[in-house]
Amino acid sequence: MLDTNTVSDALDFLGLSGATYGLRPLWGCPKIVGRASTIQLGPKQEAKSTVHLISPVIDAVASDDRVLVIAGGADGISCWGDILANAAVAKKVRGSVIDGLSRDIEGSEAVNYPVYGRGVTMISARNRMVQIDSGKPVQMAGVTVHEDDFVIADRCGTVFVPAARIAEVLDLAERIARRQDGMVAAVRAGRSVAEVMHDKEFEAIHASRT
Question: Which structural domain range is residue 57 located in?
Answer without folding.
Answer: 17-161
